[in-house]
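Sync notes, pocket subgroup
Present: LS, DG
LS reminded everyone that the earlier model was apo-only. Rerun requested with zinc ion included. Inputs:
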Amino acid sequence: MTFSRFFPAATAAAMICSVSTAHAFSLLTPTRSWDTVPVSIGVMNDSVSPETSIGAPDPDFGVTAITNALNGGVGWNGAAPGLVHAYSATSWSLNDAEPTIVFNDPLGVCAGSCLAATLIGSYYLSGGTGVIQDADVFVSRRATVRFDSELERRPMRCAGSYYIEGVIMHEVGHVLGLDHSSDPAATMFATVDPCNDLMDAITADDIAGLATLY
Ligand SMILES: [Zn+2]
């Protein structure tokens, strides 16, 4: 089963010496994308333990914040209008053709320094190009990782936490067919610092990568 992880900044040093290329983005291998849009993505609060909760002042633990971010114009829809439609979900299942963001990690795919992980193995090849059938996102529930949403942030109260909208925007990039970028400013860069609230806004490099797929 293939999955991709979003690591916190502690593992970033090894990437600083990466070789410069014509572009920074990269695509999943083999190349794959959805053949119909919008890609409807469920957002599910499955917070069965306090450490998975994204913040008490956010009444639904981030579902609204993430849904708004994914449907808004600074994320992937800003590059390809109508590409993504997020909604509040109440259940999920593997390989059901309904991509879901789960605020939990019931399969244990997000270990080590992982903040969130996306299962990207559900696709078939058509003429050498992959057609994605499903991709599900799981969020770390380790007690040492704390998430906030920007809704909760007001007034500024970040203290070493990660902004869930940015982490999820990155994972949805994997859902759409992107791999990691070597551009540290890109949403698809492999790591993020605590309190960085910029990752939910995609960059020119993210847009260039997406444009090769949609
Ligand atoms: Zn990633």
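DG: Residues 7-21 have pLDDT under 50 and may be disordered.
LS: The longest strand covers residues 116-126.
Action: DG to write up.
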